[in-house]
User: Which sequence fits this backbone?
């Protein structure tokens, strides 16, 4: 190791959000990436360890050099993957990362969760605060592991007082290279909307999400925070801004049809995702904003437009 | 039909973003056009007479009203009266039942007009930003009650009192006379309601609960201010709720005595 300056370990660095974060971080910090995928276009000063988080070899990173902080992005959501693999990668992976943090006395852990852990529902308050119950899996069982990962983070926060743990729950992250469900949906040429439903939604630009993670590294920051972008708009407004014409589908028809399309691999979205375009799942980000002085760098318009490749 | 003043007041009342909506989804432009038929109903169909509007204090306030008429036009008329007859005009928010967000079209129209789902959290947030909130503490069971139980107040929930104490909001009782007779329900066809996912499925003599042109009388009472702990026992809160219910009952009785007929 060239330097004994404590490193920042970023898991899942090879993803599009990971790379955005790495670019932001490597100018000021020594960054070590851990990902089972290769890191394409890696800046020279970033060290990359290509290994599955669940493997013992991942621990070697912590043995060989002092680590000051971990930013854990190595969480995936792929509706096509088997529930077992999914669960193992996310839950076991996160457990391993937290074990390493405890064992090697890492001072800071930042875990990227998501506002989706609360789950869309007709009963939701317009703005859910951090203490709202995590109901994401009640109507969408396959996101159970994402809720579990969040809970691993919060219980680590309570258990390990020597580590400053920050669990971030950002709203839908969008960006030209981001391939998550909301970005993919918003990029569709003729997206479905449920006839008569136009819920308010919140988006955050991927670079703002990355900035929030860097902000979370600041000494003293710890706790669970919702992170919101520049505000909230009706779903229809997003499509109007993007110039896409949605197809309106009656909600009673949409579920069985999408369910069949998903099964036969015509559609990429499982039917449970329809809840997101039918009901509210918005969060109150005021705690993060007041405690850190956070403000998004991108306006609403620019955030919406960032969905498309520039 | 809708005047300039109304347009101006709707526009200035709440902060909106670059897309013209507030964080809850209220859209003044939309509200204005959606309001036009309601203003017509207010002026020409139900010929609403509103008394005591000057009693509604500025700043945060909970409006507590009796609920009736099978379709929630009583809420709409209270909203319109505060917009067209109050000086200065005031846009209120009403707390809607939790099944509203699962209704197509209605959920969107309601949201753009400033209605929000009646959770404690939403109500608290709005009161803290000094809004006027309309609550029907009897809930859905009152609006769907059969005709023989007209003007009989149902059990009041305690949630509004907890919020009033917590946010130190005055309570203004509002009595609605006339809405009970607009669509007298003979029976509630429960199996149909269940099949459709509705809280009730009332049948009037002419089938669907289409409202008759009854005359509405709205009375806004003097503000009631309560002291006490928001996290007190239910029994303590019930005492205060009983005061509100009693006041509203007295206002309803007076309103019924004073009116000359159902349609005039």
Assistant:
């Amino acid at each position: 190791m060239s330097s004994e300056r404590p490193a920042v370990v970023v898991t899942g660095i090879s993803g599009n959000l990971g790379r955005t974060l790495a670019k932001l971080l490597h100018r000021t910090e020594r960054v070590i990436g851990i990902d089972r995928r290769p890191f394409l276009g890696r800046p020279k000063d970033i060290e990359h360890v290509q290994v599955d988080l669940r493997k013992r070899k991942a621990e070697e990173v912590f043995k060989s050099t002092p680590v000051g902080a971990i930013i854990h992005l190595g969480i995936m959501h792929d509706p096509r993957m088997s529930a077992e693999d999914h669960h193992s990668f996310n839950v076991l992976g996160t457990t391993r990362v937290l074990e390493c943090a405890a064992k090697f006395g890492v001072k800071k852990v930042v875990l990227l969760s998501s506002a989706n852990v609360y789950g869309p529902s007709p009963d939701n308050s317009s703005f859910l605060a951090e203490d709202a119950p995590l109901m994401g899996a009640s109507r969408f069982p396959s996101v159970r592991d994402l809720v579990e990962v969040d809970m691993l983070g919060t219980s680590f926060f309570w258990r390990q007082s020597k580590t400053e743990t920050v669990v971030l729950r950002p709203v839908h992250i969008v960006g030209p290279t981001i391939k998550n469900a909301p970005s993919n949906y918003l990029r569709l040429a003729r997206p479905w909307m449920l006839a008569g439903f136009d819920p308010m939604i919140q988006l955050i630009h991927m670079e703002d999400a990355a900035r929030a993670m860097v902000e979370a590294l600041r000494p003293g920051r710890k706790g669970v925070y919702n992170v919101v972008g520049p505000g909230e708009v009706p779903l229809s407004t997003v499509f109007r801004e993007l110039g896409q014409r949605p197809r309106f589908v009656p909600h009673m028809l949409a579920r069985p049809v999408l369910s069949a399309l998903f099964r036969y691999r015509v559609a990429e979205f499982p039917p449970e995702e329809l809840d997101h375009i039918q009901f509210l799942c918005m969060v109150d980000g005021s705690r993060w904003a007041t405690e850190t002085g956070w403000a998004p760098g991108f306006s609403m318009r620019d955030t919406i437009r960032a969905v498309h490749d520039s | 039909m809708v005047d300039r003043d109304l347009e101006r007041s709707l526009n200035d009342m709440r902060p909106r973003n670059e897309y013209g909506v507030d964080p809850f989804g209220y859209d003044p432009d939309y509200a204005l056009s959606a309001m036009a038929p309601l203003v017509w109903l207010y002026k020409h169909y139900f010929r609403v007479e509103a008394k005591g509007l000057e009693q509604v204090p500025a700043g945060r306030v909970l409006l507590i009203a009796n609920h009736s008429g099978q379709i929630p036009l009583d809420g709409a008329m209270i909203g319109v009266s505060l917009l067209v007859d109050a000086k200065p005009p005031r846009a209120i928010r009403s707390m809607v039942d939790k099944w509203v967000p699962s209704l197509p079209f209605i959920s969107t129209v309601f949201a753009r007009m400033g209605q929000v789902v009646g959770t404690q959290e939403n109500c608290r947030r709005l009161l803290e930003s000094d809004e006027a909130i309309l609550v029907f503490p009897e809930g859905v069971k009152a609006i769907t009650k059969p005709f023989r139980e007209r003007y009989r107040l149902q059990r009041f929930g305690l949630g509004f009192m907890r919020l009033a104490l917590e946010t130190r909001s005055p309570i203004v009782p509002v009595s609605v006379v006339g809405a009970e007779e607009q669509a007298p329900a003979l029976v509630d066809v429960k199996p149909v309601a269940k099949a459709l996912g509705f809280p009730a499925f009332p049948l009037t003599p002419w089938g669907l609960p289409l409202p008759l042109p009854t005359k509405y009388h709205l009375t806004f009472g003097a503000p009631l201010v309560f002291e006490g702990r928001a996290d007190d026992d239910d029994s303590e809160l019930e005492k205060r709720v009983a005061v509100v219910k009693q006041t509203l009952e007295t206002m309803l009785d007076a309103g019924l005595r004073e009116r000359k007929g159902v349609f005039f």
Notes: Chain B has a mean pLDDT of 89. Chain B touches chain A at residues 17-19, 21, 23-25, 98-108, 111, 116-117, 119-122, 125 (CB under 8 Å). Chain B has nine helices and nine strands.
